[in-house]
Amino acid sequence: MKWITAEDLENIAIGATLLGTGGGGDPFVGKLMALQAIQKYGPVKVLTVDELDDKALVMPVGSIGAPSVSNEKIASEEEVYAPAEVLKDFFPERTQAIMPIEIGGGNSLLPIACAAKMGLPIVDADAMGRAFPESQMVTFFLKGYQPEIVAMADSQGNRIVYYPKDGEWSEKIARAITDVMGGNANMVDNVFSGKIVKECGIRGTLSLAKEIGEELTILNDSVPPVQRLLDRLNGFSLFEGKISHIERNVEGGFTRGRAAFTGINRNKGEELEILFQNELLLAKKDGAVLASTPDLICALDYETGRPITTETLRYGARIHVIALPCDQKWRTKKGLEVAGPKYFGYEVDYQPVEELMGEKVHV
Predict the structure, then answer these.
(1) Predicted TM-score of the model (pTM)
(2) Rounded (5°) CA angle 171-177-180
């Protein structure tokens, strides 16, 4: 993928929604914003990580806050662009490219809009390989790099720049500011050189999102799209069921909750529970863990195979729950300390999904 055009956005949005594991912001809103920007400013050039200048800067762009709020308080073009514009004057080095901070939902598409407006390329990489709810949950942090300066902006025209002690303090400060800003804000942090992005970035994730979108929209009677997807990503079918109960509330700048499923088809008579904090984090069938963060747990519409966000989970919906192995960077000791199940308060020892599930189930 050398350029992102308007025709690419639908497939990127579908794939990013799946990789976002239910979070990352509303993909439909993000797609519309990216579409408007590309129509206004033109296609966005895509750079591989290896094409980055070691000394030039890469600015990761994204939003922070509860998806429930961002769906109702849609950001303007200026709001998305403002944090990157503010930070340009703080660095003597030139900014070579924009990058998604996470490859999830709307946060994969807002950077495209920002890049189009700024006339900059976008990097085919991100710092999570999925979506996570907290800003220190990035591969830069795993390698010991800390955000030296952070910029945030809101819908009221407020612009804030601060200098956090480290990534954990950056999250605490940003979350408090986000609450004051109404529960959602736009943000640029973890601004690093091309050399550091080469070391830490999870490569090819924008291209992967596009490929996933294409996979789920190709009509092929011989192999169901979900099965092709599982084969492509070494994924696992966890459960087929109907949502029998849903709890969801905005708390501390996050959308938190749980969803209960009653089994259908091969899972008839079984029960599944999924716990989430913006993203789907833990899946248990009849009390036994099937998958947990940092592996990816994804909810797909049973009929279409399209991925569903935590905001659009509804009582009675028929869902196919799948899981995908996370990037190996998250399976390190540090990765599990930062984003494993115990960090989120679940008294569960992490096991890779492939160990928990054993043989794959064909759908």
Answers:
(1) 0.91
(2) 145
